[in-house]
Amino acid sequence: MAKKSMVAGKSVLILCPEIGLTPQLVNNFQEVFGRKVLLLHSRLSNGKRLSTWRTILESKDPLIVIGPRSAIFSPLHDIGLIVLDESHEPAYKQEQAPYYHANRVASKLASLHGSSLIFGSATPSIVDYYLAIQKQKPIIKLEHVPGKMIKEARKLALLT
User: Fold this and answer.
1) How many whole angstroms separate alpha carbon 152 and alpha carbon 63?
2) Is 123 exposed, middle or buried (0-12, 13-18, 19+ CB in 10 A)?
3) Integer Cα distance of 85 and 48 in angstroms
4) Which CATH number characterizes residue 112's domain?
5) Is the Cβ–Cβ distance between 109 and 76 less than 8 Å?
6) Are 56 and 74 in contact (CB under 8 A)?
7) Which domain holds residue 42?
8) CA 88 to CA 124: how far, in whole Å?
9) Which end of the chain is more exposed for a tag (fewer CB within 10 A), N or C?
10) Any idea which of 15-19, 89-93, 139-143 has the lowest mean pLDDT?
């Protein structure tokens, strides 16, 4: 879906629950999309964070921004896809001011942009599951034991 979004001229936002998980995601996406993939998180130096923020803000081309919950506030234009990897993780909830839950912010952002929103989770919250059913959104279930299949599925998601 990321490729379809980029081909359509729309940006992609990929959130993961921890900064430590971002390097693998960035590497996987850079294999396909190269320099259009940007990493944004609080452990970057102030200069690098400012530079990345400006790149996102000033870009006329679609980009892929990857980061933890705070990346939801990146100034991406024309978002076509938002993905929350491991969306059940409590790390998406900001416990200090400003208080927010990245899942809910992502839902509103997707609504404002008319973009697709994917909550990826092996153990979805009952609230998200209920809302998906009520809104008649597709729920895709893994029928086999995860492992190598997940790595392959993520690569396929990049390409389709």
Assistant:
1) 23
2) exposed
3) 24
4) 3.40.50.300
5) no
6) yes
7) 2-159
8) 5
9) C
10) 139-143
What are the tokens at 82? 């938002």
What is the model's pTM? 0.86
Residue-wise pLDDT for 86-124, tens only, equals: 999 999 999 999 999 999 999 999 999 999 999 988 888
What is the Cα–Cα distance from 124 to 119, expressed in whole angstroms? Answer: 8
> Which pair of structure tokens corresponds to residue 108?
């509103």
3-state class of 139 per DSSP?
A: coil
56-93: pLDDT as tens digits: 999 999 999 999 999 999 999 999 999 999 999 999 99
Distances (CA, A) of 78 to 13, 98, 102, 104: 11, 25, 19, 19
8 A C-beta contact, residue 122 and residue 7:
no
- Please give the single-letter amino acid code of residue 136: Q
User: What's the confidence (pLDDT) of residue 156?
Assistant: 58
SS3 readout for 66-79:
EECHHHHHCCCCCE
Number of structural domains found in the chain: 1
What is the Cα Rg of the chain in Å?
Answer: 15
pLDDT band at 137 (very low <50, low <70, confident <90, very high): confident
